[in-house]
Amino acid sequence: MAERKPKADKADKPKSLAEAGLEQFKTREVHRSQLKGADYNPRIITDQERLKLKKALAKHGLVAPITWNERTGNIVGGHQRLSIMDALMRTSDYSMTVAVIDVEPAREKELNILLNNTASQGSFDMDKLRELFKDEAVTVEGSGFDLGDIYDMFGDQVINEREQDLKEFSDLLSGMSKAYDTISDHNRAKLDGEFFCVLTFPNRAAMLRMFDHIGVRESRYQNGELFAMKLGVPLDGEEDTPDDGEPD
User: Fold this and answer.
1) What is the rounded distance in angstroms from the CA atom of residue 102 to the CA atom of residue 108?
2) What is the pTM of this model?
3) What is the pLDDT of residues 103-162, one digit of tens each?
4) Which of 84, 96, 130, 203 is the most exposed, having the fewest neighbouring CB atoms within 10 Å of its CB?
5) Distance of CA 73 to CAs 23, 24, 38, 61, 101, Å?
6) Nearest to 145 by CA among 159, 163, 164
7) Domains delineated in the chain
8) By the 8 A CB rule, do 64 and 80 touch?
């Protein structure tokens, strides 16, 4: 009769990822000055994408740590998020909790690619994503998208079910349309608006030169926040009170 092998003792099984050797980081609070951007980092971000990320992080804050290689001082994952934190803090003189690893440069580069590699991170189930966005409690900007993205992905299927977003979107388009009609009719009266303005140029060529200088795509309707970012004008914080010329 074959001898039975003794069952593995449960006590021999790892009780945590760290014990199993699968948790390769520790958390620590470090000063922002210790975190260097990796000069080889292949990830880029457009101004429009950066604006979306900034809005999302301004709402949620940083909910996952930046990954930092202590051995080289390089950021491994989180370059764009960290730059947004600098903008929100309006300084680089602060401390933060990071995920610390200690690896050789070659492995650091592999991890940098891995952490940013959409080819290994799956994709959206569009049906489930559509249902998520039908919930008006889920904000579009908080997800890193904007209404234009939602329309590109789902047409009006989702927007028509988000009454508040649809109203704001419709009001914005209506206001822009009315402003354009006014200019087209050569009405030079001042247009009062709480959150938009109209720029006029002597001719189309002058307008295109302006767009090229600022670095935005040609479009009759421009995002004022993106314009401000291109010009280096901060829009964060409380609204400014107009100067009435009176001394304090």
Assistant:
1) 9
2) 0.65
3) 999 999 999 999 999 899 899 999 999 999 988 889 988 999 988 888 888 887 787 777
4) 203
5) 20, 17, 9, 24, 10
6) 159
7) 24-119 (3.90.1530), 124-187 (no CATH), 199-234 (no CATH)
8) no
Of 171, 48, 159, nearest to 179 by C-alpha is 171
Percent of the chain surpassing pLDDT 90:
46
pLDDT band, very low/low/confident/very high, at 167 (cuts 50, 70, 90): low
- Paired residues of 29 in beta bridges: 97
Single out the residue of 43, 82, 35, 40 nearest to residue 62, CA to CA.
82
Length of the chain (residues): 248
The CA distance from 21 to 27, in Å, is 16
Question: Can you tell me the distance from the alpha carbon of 220 to that of 183, in angstroms, rounded to the nearest whole number?
Answer: 12
Give the three-state DSSP class for 237. Answer: coil
Q: How far apart are CA 244 and CA 248, in angstroms?
A: 10
Choose among 81, 77, 144, 84: nearest CA to 112: 77
Q: How far apart are the first and last CA of the chain?
A: 100
